[in-house]
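Researcher: I'd like a structural prediction for the single chain below. Treat it as a standalone chain; there are no partners to consider.
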Amino acid sequence: RVEVVGGQGDGAKLGAALEKVGGVKVAKGKDFDPATGAIKEGMKEPVKLLSQQDTTQLCERLRAPDITWTVTSITSKSISREPPAAFTTSTLQQEASRRLRLSPMQTMRVAQSLYEAGHITYMRTDSSTLSTSATATARALITTLFGDAYLSDAAAPRKTKKAKNAQEAHEAIRPAGEQFAAPVDLVVGEEIERRLYELIYKRTIASLMTPAKTASSSAGIVAVEGDEMVAEFRATGSYVAFDGFLRAYGDVEEADEKKLPELKKGQKLLPKDILSSVHETKPPGRFSDASLVKELETQGVGRPSTYASIIQTLMDRGYVLKKNQTLIPTLTAFAVSSLLKTYFPTFVDTQFTARMEEALDHIAKGEYDRLSYLTNYYLGESGLRSTVERTENTIEVQQARRVMLPSLADAQHMKLFVGPYGPYVQADEDRKASLPLTMLPEDVTAEALEDLINRKEDPVLGTDPTTGLPVYLKVGKFGPYVQLGEESDYEGEEKPRKASLMEGMDVHSLTVEMALRALSLPRSLGVNPETGEGVRAGLGRFGPYVVSGELFVSLKKDDDVFEVELPRALELIEEKLARDAALLIADLGTYKSKSMKVMKGRYGPYLKYGVKTAKLTAPMRAAPLEITAEQAAAVVDELLAATAPAGKKRSTAGKKTTVKKTTAAKKATAVKKTAVVKKTVAKKTTTKKATAVGKKTPAAVGAGKTSPSEP
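Model: Treating it as a single chain, here is the predicted structure.
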C-alpha cells in the first residue's frame, strides 16, 4: 500500500493498494480456496502470490527517486442501497444480536413482553409484509419526519426473498396500533424493551423509505521506472450522496475522509510512504447467534418460534459454548455428532428436517393424514423406532466415544474420549488425564495433552514457609489451580486452600511465590463500620472483587486485588449500594437467613435471593409490587431445588414456607424447619435409588451430561 500526495497542488493525500506487479494481478483474499487456503484452480486470469521477501524488495525499489507516479484512469459510479424489509422473527433475532447483543432467547423474551403489553404485533412470523393501515401510518410518519423526498414509490411493491417453508399467516413485526408510539414515549418496565421497540420502529419506517445513494470513485495509478511498468495501484473513495432510509437509523457516516481528492488523468503524484503488511488466509468464521439463525432459515430447519429454543438446547446440553458472541462446539458435540452421522445419518441430515417441516405443512393444510404420517415416521420400516432397534446393537461403544481431531492425526498413541464425567485423554492403560471443561477443540494438541498427562501427578511447586505445607499444581474440570497441602494435612471439616491461576499466570513458568500470592486470597481488609460485617478482597469467576456480608462488588480496572485497602473497598460498596437502591422494587424480608428482594433488571424484574438470582413468573413480572413474601419464598424453593447437587434434589411442592419478618415468628419457623428436615431425609433416600437406577440406563454415547431420553 502506498500513500501519495497530489490533487490540486494542495498536498492532499490518498492511499492506494497494490493491484499488479509487472502486469500480473496480485493475489487477494477472494482468489484463495477457503477449503484449502491455496490459490483457486482454473482462474481466468493468472495471479501472483507475493512472499514477504518479494514485498520487501518491491518496497525498496518503489522508494527509488527515479520512479514516476502517474494517474492513468479515473472512474465513478453511483450505487443504490435498497432498504431492508420489515422484520420477520428470523431477521429480528439477527438484528437484535448484532445491534443489542441479545441472544435469540433473550430477544424473544423481550419481544413477548412488548407483545403482551400491546406495543408490537405478533412476534412469530415469516412474513415481511405490512398491513394496509400500517403502511399508511408509516408513510405518513416518513413525510412528517423526513419529507416527501424520503418516501418510497407506493406503486412499486417490494420484492422480498422468502425462506423455505415460509408461513405468512401474520404480517411483519411492527409497532402495534393505528398510530405508532414514538420510542421515547413508550411506557415499559425495562430499558431493553424500549431499545428493542426502537429497533422495530425504525426498521418498519425504513422499509418504506427510498434507497440510499452512494457515489463511488476510483483512480488507477502506475509506478514506472524508465520504460518499465513496475507496479499498478488503485485508490478508491466513496461518500453518501443521498442518505435515504439510513436517515431513519441515524447511520449516515461522515464519509468525507473516504472521498478522493480532485484528480486528473495524466496527473503526476509524489510518494509519501510505502508500506507492506502480511495477510494470512483464515478459516471460515464460526457461527454467531445471528448467523446460525440465518443458516437455519436458509436450510429450512425449524420455525421462527423454534430458532431460539434450538440454540438454547445446544448450550444447555453442553454441546456449544458461547465466547465473545461466538458459538464454539465442545468435544462432547464432536462425539455425539460423529455417533449420529455414523449410525443415524438419515435423522441428522438437514434435508430430512426440511422434508419433515414440509410434510407438517401438508398436514396443516389437510393434504396429509396426520396419524398415518406419524405412525410411519415412528413405527414404519425406516422409522425412528425401527432404525434405533436395528442399529443400537451394532454401535461400537468405545469407537463412538472417541473424538477424532485433525490436530491429533500424527499422534495416534493419543486417544481422546468423552466419558460420563467429561472428555479425557488416554496415551496407554496407565497414562490418562481428564481435560478441563474450558479446553476448546482448537486448544487440543498432542503437546497440550502430553502436558496434561505429565501434570496429573500434581507437581509440588515448593513449600509454604508459614505452614510448612507443600504447594501443589493441580488440574481440575475448569482448568489448572494451586492447592496448599492435602486433605490429610487438615483436621475436622477444614479443607485445603485452593486458588485458580490468575490472568497472566502460566503453568510452565509458575513459581511457588506466585502460587502463594494467589492462595493469599481472599484477604481480610477490616470491618464495615455500617454493618459490623467483615470486608474481604478476593478473586472469583468474574474477576477480582470485594465482599461485605452478601454484597459482592467487582473491582475497577485500576484496582489491584492485592493492594486494595478498606477505605477504597467501602467506597466501592457505597457505590454499589446506591446503584442497587435505584434498582430496588421491593424488599420482602429474609427467608432461610438470606434476604429476598425484587429488583429491576435488563430483561425485566427478577428476584434476588442473597447473591443468587431467580426468574419470576410472567404474572409476577407484570405486577412486581404485588409480589408477596410467600410467593417469593416459593420461587426460592424452586431455585434451591433446581440448583441442588445431583442426588440431593427434592420437591418443595406442598410445603408451607415461612418468611422471617419479625422476632416473634422465629420460634414457629424453627419448629417447621425441623419437620421439613425429617421429610427431606426420607425423600433423599428415594432420590438416591432413582439415581442409581438411572445410571444403569444407557445415555447417549459420549454425552457427558445427557439424559437417557436424548438421542
